[in-house]
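BACKBONE STRUCTURE TOKENS:
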Amino acid sequence: MFRLLELTLHGWDLWPAVRVPLDADVVLVSGPNGSGKTTLRDAVRQLLNAPKLSSKRRLQHYLRRPDQPALIRAVVSNLPDGRGKPPFARERITAEEVTLACALVPASGGAPEKRFAVLPGRTTAEALQARLLNSREWYPPERYARVLENAGVSRSLMAVLAFEQGRT
């Protein structure tokens, strides 16, 4: 399976553009109540196409600018596993790093449209926006879920992501 190396958020909740390095063996996120820990976790949940957000949160909660999409981008490792295959080999991506991206595009009917991309290397936010917002070269959630499953994202990992604070 791949490893998260870096997470960037654009237009997510009330935050300005933010970059979170995740390339250490252990990453600790701490802060007082209301500082954004759950907001950060929900961004990772969206990027990994998890089935739900934290309790009492809705996706619209994170789109505070109704006319602007939110972009969640992660750089992940793509190093060969024990069988010698990189996680994204089925997507024909052999670069050592891969960019995963999720754009949440506001829709008139309520819930935003989710668009995903998987690209070799470190793709810039501008290039991702062009692909996810101005073209049809993106994955719908069902196709992206298969890509992640092929890359090693398991149901057990999704179960861990679904844990709520105080219930672990």
Summary: The mean pLDDT is 90. Strands lie at 4-10, 18-21, 70-77, 97-105, 113-120. The helical segments are 37-47, 59-62, 125-134, 141-150, 155-162.
